[in-house]
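Long-time lurker, first post. I've been practising inverse folding by hand and with some scripts of my own, and I keep getting stuck on stretches where the structure tokens seem ambiguous. Below is the full token string for one chain I'm working on. Before anyone asks, I'm not after the true native sequence, just a reasonable design that respects the backbone. If someone could post their per-position residues I'd love to compare against what I wrote down in my notebook.
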């Protein structure tokens, strides 16, 4: 029986099995219904096999999330030069000539369509099964109707990603198992795809179980996920998107940006109806998903950090509505690609963490409220050497702790549970990939309330938006700060426009590094505007670093050309009173002039000393780093400078590395508004000409040629 099931699973992977193109279909076998549906257990095995494709697609793991989704917002960038690898071209909006054969586009496209066809095959098999037919006719949720719903939700996820990343897509809802099936395929307008998937989800959701019913957890697709995906599809259906330059715009508002080749940024005239649809289903998710906001800080002083700590403990976060399951000792990209950088090797202490998601200075120094508990949990100023030492990450282009600047801090090898398994080697921690969490949903709900209130739609209000916004923002501040930073802050919001702006900002702070920001900016129609603001900010920053060695933000924080650091051994740090070299929340009552403050601010850094006990490491050089002058420029030769040098501090290059490397070679072109700089495929001149950023991915040339050019690229991309 196991051999027969294995054959079945392998047969279902044939569609898209070619590494060259997804249309190369060869003898796809039909599902053996008699075998698969002889019991719920066997049917469940088939469904679980489909989850492996969801995991392998890289939507929130490596590949797609790494190269496309997680970077190229207005503050999230990759660490390396865009010229160092073809896959980085698209994260900078294509500053280099596009070759649709190079890079990861083929893998991404194939993986998603392999998932689509697997879903279509399984759904067709269910529909032919008497067991499923009887369960559906009963009209109440059952194991069979739920599993069918899981596959429908999974397909919707695949199409959600395809339409927001590629735009118009090939839309098929039946299995591809013959030449005739694929010869007629062509691109379908993305709105049609999104509407079709919404309709399918509405058909299946009532016969699915919610999370925590029948033992279903956030590692399975549940009714709450179906509701969430209806809402997310409705929002991108109602939002702005880049459409081909020759697209029929009959049912669209006047494009807000246009380029003769790149396309037109526009939304449909019926967009408000889709915002209303999203609002309806977001409320259902809020009320019935089974997830809950984490408000207990577990003694750390920071409840926000507990979202990610639960995952690093290899638990399902109570805030998650859906997590893509990973296996400890076998898989995951967190922390390796999407966590705190580490320069360790494959099996070091800790192992290598590349750190694909980095942040621009304005986000950490200029945007974050100093009292916001999310600030240091989100941003890593220091990384890990791989031999027990904490190191400052330089502002040179590079990876791990050799360059790239500040990184994502939400996942950290040092905070993993059971280091002997989770951190035995790189990329095997087993930390799940969160796809939907409750805070995201609450902020989307607040957005729909604010936007529809702005449009004068009855039943939607600023008050409703603030109610949802408060739930998320309140957790971000300590109880003693909430009167000013939450109550008073929200009380000052008295217009829909102000409420919408507050939601936009809250999503930026809450969801940084989680793959939301770029596509928020897209559907809001402001990606180009925000990129232009960033480029102007970077030009100003570079000029200030060169002329006065610091750049000051409106909040008074100064981004310095140099900082002062001092290393402390574990014993020395403990002698000062540091209880744990793996630092948590910076204590509020610390004297800012004390060495303990310099060791613990910023918070959520340091290093664990568990490498010896859990990994058997010997002779590690445990060192913590005290930092002075990170937010306040200290002039060379000043009394403070002299005192720090006398205390054993070193004046080390920091922001100055954006101007020159160690040998004095200019680095400005890597950070300014140039073809090789920040978002070099969309320069200020493009914004001034009212062109849209080209964030869309090109269709692989192999797919185009195999279709005999029935399928072609738009957006100025070549077909071969």
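-- Answer (accepted) --
I ran through it position by position. Result:
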């Amino acid at each position: 029986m196991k051999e027969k099931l294995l054959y079945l699973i392998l047969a279902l992977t044939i569609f898209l099995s070619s590494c060259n193109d997804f249309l190369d279909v060869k003898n796809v076998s039909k599902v053996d219904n008699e075998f698969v549906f002889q019991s719920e257990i066997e049917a469940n095995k088939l469904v679980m096999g489909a989850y492996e494709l969801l995991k392998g697609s890289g939507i929130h793991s490596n590949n797609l999330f790494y190269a496309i989704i997680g970077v190229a917002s207005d503050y999230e960038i990759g660490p390396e030069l865009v010229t160092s690898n073809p896959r980085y071209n698209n994260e900078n909006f294509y500053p280099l000539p596009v070759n649709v054969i190079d890079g990861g586009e083929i893998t991404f496209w194939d993986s998603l369509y392999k998932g689509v066809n697997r879903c279509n095959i399984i759904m067709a098999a269910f529909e032919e099964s008497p067991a499923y037919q009887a369960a559906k006719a009963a009209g109440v949720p059952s194991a069979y109707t739920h599993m069918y719903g899981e596959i429908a939700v999974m397909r919707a996820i695949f199409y959600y990603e395809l339409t927001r990343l590629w735009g118009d897509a090939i839309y098929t809802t039946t299995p591809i198992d013959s030449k005739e099936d694929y010869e007629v395929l062509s691109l379908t307008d993305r709105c049609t795809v999104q509407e079709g998937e919404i309709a399918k989800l509405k058909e299946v959701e009532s016969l699915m179980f919610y999370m925590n019913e029948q033992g279903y957890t956030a590692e399975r697709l549940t009714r709450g996920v179906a509701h969430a995906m209806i809402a997310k599809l409705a929002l991108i259906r109602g939002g702005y998107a880049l459409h081909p330059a020759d697209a029929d715009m009959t049912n669209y508002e006047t494009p807000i940006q246009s380029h003769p080749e790149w396309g037109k940024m526009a939304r449909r005239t019926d967009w408000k109806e889709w915002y209303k649809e999203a609002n309806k289903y977001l409320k259902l998710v809020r009320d019935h998903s089974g997830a809950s906001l984490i408000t207990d800080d577990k003694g750390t002083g920071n409840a926000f950090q507990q979202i990610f700590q639960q995952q690093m403990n290899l638990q399902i976060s109570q805030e998650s509505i859906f997590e893509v399951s990973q296996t400890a000792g076998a898989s995951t990209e967190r922390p390796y690609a999407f966590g705190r950088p580490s320069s360790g090797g494959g099996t070091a202490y800790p192992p290598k963490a590349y750190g694909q998601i980095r942040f621009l200075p304005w986000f950490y120094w200029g945007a974050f409220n100093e009292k916001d508990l999310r600030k240091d949990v989100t941003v890593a100023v220091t990384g890990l050497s791989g031999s027990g030492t904490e190191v400052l990450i330089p502002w040179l282009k590079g990876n791990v702790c050799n360059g790239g600047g500040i990184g994502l801090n939400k996942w950290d090898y040092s905070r993993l549970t059971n280091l002997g398994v989770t951190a035995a080697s790189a990329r095997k921690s087993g930390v799940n990939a969160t796809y939907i969490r409750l805070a995201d949903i609450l902020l989307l709900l607040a957005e729909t309330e604010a936007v529809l209130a702005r449009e004068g739609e009855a039943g939607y209000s600023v008050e409703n938006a603030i109610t949802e916004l408060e739930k998320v923002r309140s957790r971000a501040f300590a109880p003693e700060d909430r009167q000013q930073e939450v109550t008073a802050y929200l009380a000052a919001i008295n217009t829909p426009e102000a409420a919408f702006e507050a939601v936009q900002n809250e999503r930026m702070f809450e969801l940084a590094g989680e793959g939301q920001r770029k596509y928020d900016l897209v559907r809001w129609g402001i990606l180009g505007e925000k990129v232009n603001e960033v480029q102007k900010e970077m030009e100003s920053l570079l000029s200030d670093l060169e002329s006065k060695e610091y750049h000051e933000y409106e909040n008074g924080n100064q981004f310095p050309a140099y900082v002062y650091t001092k290393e402390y051994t574990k014993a020395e740090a403990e002698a000062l009173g540091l209880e744990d070299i793996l630092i948590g929340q910076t204590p509020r009552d610390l004297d800012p002039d004390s060495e303990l403050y310099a060791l613990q601010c910023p918070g959520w850094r340091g290093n664990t000393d568990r490498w010896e006990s859990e990994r058997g490491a010997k002779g590690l050089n445990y060192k913590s780093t005290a930092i002075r002058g990170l937010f306040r420029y200290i002039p060379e030769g000043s009394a403070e400078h002299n005192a720090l040098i006398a205390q054993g501090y070193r004046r080390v290059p920091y922001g100055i590395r954006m101007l020159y490397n160690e040998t004095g070679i200019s680095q400005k072109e890597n950070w300014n508004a140039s073809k090789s700089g920040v978002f070099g495929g969309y320069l200020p001149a493009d914004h001034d000409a009212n062109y849209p950023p080209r964030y869309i991915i090109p269709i692989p040339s192999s797919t185009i040629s195999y279709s005999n050019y029935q399928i072609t690229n738009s957006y100025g991309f070549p077909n071969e």
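A couple of notes from the structure itself: The radius of gyration is 26 Å. The longest helix spans residues 105-128. Happy to go over any region you disagree with.
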